[in-house]
Design goal:
Number of helices: 15
Distance between the termini: 56 Å
CATH class of the largest domain: Alpha Beta
Strand content: 15-25%
CATH superfamily of the largest domain: Type I PLP-dependent aspartate aminotransferase-like (Major domain)
Helix content: 25-40%
Strand order of the largest sheet: 4-10-9-8-7-5-6
Structural class: alpha/beta
Number of domains: 2
Number of strands: 15
Order of helices and strands: HHEEEHHHEHEHEHEHEHEEHHHEEHEEEH
CATH architecture of the largest domain: 3-Layer(aba) Sandwich
Radius of gyration: 22 Å
Length: 439
């Protein structure tokens, strides 16, 4: 079997004759990119290779990847262990369906590992190919559980303004609470109610809980299937809730028999310094949606963890649902090795340590008139501007060789858990330098 670097060399040889300008021309001619104006594409940065927290374009220019791709690359780029895990599994069993009564060893072992990490009460797993699939599945399971329990009228899903739960045209986009992402896609699914975004320092937990209680009383608990939420909102600009928010919300939901779905697509597997964010907030959800860092992005994969209560409600019901690549053996093998790396290298501890330092350095920005707030936890941080275009700011930061994500008046960052001390300094100093220019 070829060594991973030999594989890379072979792949690179196939495109060696193509210049960057040729690749950019072909890209703009043929690819419709996510989050870009159709018919008016910008010339892309063509990424050629990556290692650790750094990517290189086809001209050989390095960039510090402070976005972790899209939040996912926990163990860093270029890990030979994950390449070998994928190649070894492909050589033995590249794929077979997990529908009906078929299974495979990597998927079985991964399910066991995930339930061990999640702890008592989350004993079942349904595999997906990503986050949008996962949130759609969790919502379907919640509704199906109540239907099977003889309460089909329990179909309302409570979500929050500013929430991001995926871009699928069905349940995931309907649960999302970011209006620009929903424009032009009507009609969306009915049965979703969006509550106030919980923002530490700007919202009061008493008021948020009062709103939840009032909504339940107005609609009727007998009509509400579940409440879905991100432990810390990511896409909206890294918005942590008040410290006591989740425990009080969970208490209200339990009192009324409403299922709790946690969207941990971003936060699971170390982003906050814990295997799962529900550990950090001291709650026990009924369904947990994961993806992204489960394989560090080396294979499209996700998993929905299911607690005892939904399983009891669903007992005896046929689950007429599934994705072609659910339980993909290669994805499961990569996930197993990825989780082993996180544990072996104590990347949970690294996320806490490096996140604290990044937050400390970013906090200096609040002394500038251009910055209204710095917020975050672990290796998940956002900077909100008082004025100015964060997209342009992110572009200026990228010209200095650091990639952050800009949207409206916010930039966000989520570097790999293997980010070094020097890279933390560079991220913060580069942002500070460019924000200072805004004046």
């Amino acid at each position: 079997m070829a060594h991973p670097q030999e594989v890379f060399a072979l792949l690179s040889a196939g495109t060696a004759a193509r210049s960057t300008s040729d690749l950019q021309r072909l890209d703009t001619a043929h690819i419709v990119h996510p989050q870009q104006v159709v018919g008016r594409p910008a010339a892309p940065i063509v990424v050629a290779r990556a290692q650790g927290s750094t990517i290189w374009d086809t001209d050989g220019r390095p960039y510090l990847d402070a976005t972790c791709g899209l939040w996912q690359c926990a163990v860093g780029h270029g890990r030979d262990e994950l390449v070998r895990a994928a190649a070894d599994q492909m050589g033995q069993l590249e794929f077979y369906t997990s529908f009906w009564d078929f299974s495979n060893e990597p998927a079985i072992l991964l399910a066991e590992r995930l339930t061990e990490l999640a702890g008592d009460g989350l004993r079942r797993v349904h595999f997906t190919s990503g986050g949008s699939e996962g949130t759609a599945l969790a919502i379907k399971l919640a509704r199906l559980a109540w239907d099977h329990a003889g309460q089909p009228e329990r179909d309302i899903i409570l979500s929050r303004q500013g929430a991001y739960h995926g871009s699928g045209s069905g349940a995931s986009l309907s649960a999302t609470g970011i209006p620009p992402l929903k424009e032009g896609f009507d009609p969306l699914m009915e049965g979703f109610i969006h509550l106030t975004c919980p923002h530490a320092g700007r919202t009061n937990t008493d008021a948020l809980v009062d709103e939840l209680v009032e909504t339940i009383e107005r609609i009727g608990a007998e009509r509400i299937a579940a409440f879905i939420g991100e432990p810390i909102m990511g896409v909206s600009g890294v918005i942590p809730p008040p410290d006591d928010y989740w425990t009080r919300v969970e208490s209200v939901l339990r009192e009324h028999g409403i299922l709790l779905i946690l969207d941990e697509v971003i936060t699971a597997f170390g982003r906050l310094g814990h295997w799962f964010a529900f550990e950090r907030f001291g709650i026990r959800p009924d369904l947990v949606v994961t993806a992204k860092a489960i394989t560090s992005g080396y294979f499209p994969f996700g998993a929905v963890l299911i607690a005892d209560r939904p399983i009891e409600l669903l007992d005896g019901r046929m689950l007429r649902h599934g994705f072609t690549y659910s339980g993909h053996p290669v994805g499961a093998a990569v996930a197993l090795e990825n989780l082993a790396i996180i544990e072996r290298e104590d990347l949970l501890g690294a996320a806490r340590k490096q996140g604290t330092e990044l937050g400390r350095r970013l906090a200096r920005l609040e002394e500038l008139d251009q910055v209204s707030e710095v917020r975050g936890e672990g290796l998940m941080w956002g900077v909100e501007l008082t004025s100015g275009d964060a997209v342009q700011l992110a572009a200026a930061i990228r010209k200095r060789g650091v990639i952050v994500r800009g949207m409206e008046n916010r930039i966000v960052m989520s570097p790999p858990l293997v980010v070094t001390d020097e890279e933390i300094v560079r991220i913060a100093d580069t942002i500070e330098a460019e924000v200072g220019i805004l004046s």
